[in-house]
Amino acid sequence: MSTRPAAVHPLAPRFAQGITGLLCLEAIMFGTPAAVVVAFALVAVALFAPRFSPVGWVFRQVARPADHLEPAAPTRFSQVLALVFLGAASVLLFTGPQIVGWVLAGMVAALALLSATTGICVGCEIYRLFLARRTSHGDEDPRALMALDGQGPWLVVLTAPGCARCEPTARELEAVAGGREVRRVDITRTPGATKLPVRSVPAAIAVAADGALRVVKTGRLDRASLAEVAAAV
After folding, report:
1. Which residues lie closer than 8 Å to 223 by C-beta, 6 or more apart?
2. Are residues 223 and 157 located together in one domain of the fold?
3. Confidence band, pLDDT 50/70/90 cuts, at residue 131
4. pLDDT in tens, 72-114
5. Is 144 exposed, middle or buried (0-12, 13-18, 19+ CB in 10 A)?
6. Is residue 176 part of a domain?
7. Residue 1: predicted pLDDT
């Protein structure tokens, strides 16, 4: 099994989901169950051996470098869901009842194409909602997830290798933090941080002394957004 990346190019999941959706749509339109099996195989390779994924290889040849990255865990959860539905659809299309198999393939096509065209990943949102609920209820302590030591509160910037905006964001947060230390947490070295309900890195986070997440900011982090994070502690 290849090493799974902790963060991915933000367009990579959408590209892969587009391929999956088109294969399932082709299968439904032309009555070719084999296309569903191909989609299943491509998702399985991307999930368990991403380095050898042909879809991933094609994407790397055409994609421009990203200035921010997304945690890979929500994408992997979505891939698991797709694998289950595609596997069930493949079995049913060849053993019956076929109508149920086509319904499952249609569901995958609809959700995959929705994600590919709009960026709305239903599986990813389910994953994030589950994590948000766990962290809010104290089942996952953010201090442990980010390996934060010493006395809080803490200002944190989540980073990842290849993230062009991560270090400039950390320096900007330091500039508005009034001398308070800003911790840089690399999600590839601190894998627990990938369990936080964040959409992308860099992510600026204010953590209270008791471990509660006060503010989490991702996306285009301007000076005003970072000042809000700093003010939270």
Report:
1. 172, 176
2. yes
3. confident
4. 989 999 999 999 999 999 999 999 899 999 999 999 999 999 9
5. exposed
6. yes
7. 40
Residue 100 tokens read as 């149920």
Provide the number of structural domains found in the chain.
2
Q: Based on the domain organization, do 14 and 116 belong to the same domain?
A: yes
**pLDDT, average across residues 108-125:** 96
In this structure, are residues 108 and 22 in contact, taking their beta carbons and an 8 Å threshold?
no
Q: Exposed (0-12), middle (13-18) or buried (19+): which is 2, by Cβ within 10 Å?
A: exposed
In this predicted structure, the answer to whether residue 187 has a pLDDT above a threshold of 70 is yes
Residues 153 and 121 in one domain: no
* Separation between Cα atoms, residue 4 and residue 46, nearest integer Å: 9
Are both 150 and 100 inside the same structural domain?
Answer: no
Which residue is it, tokens 């309900």?
197
Compute φ and ψ for 7, nearest 5 degrees. Answer: -140, 150
Which residue range forms the structural domain that includes residue 199?
141-231
pLDDT at 137: 57
Using a cut of 0.70, tell me whether the model's pTM lies above it.
yes
- Residues ≥6 apart with Cβ < 8 Å to 230: 155, 173, 176, 177, 178, 180, 206
Evaluate whether residue 134 is within a structural domain: no
Average pLDDT over all residues of the chain = 92
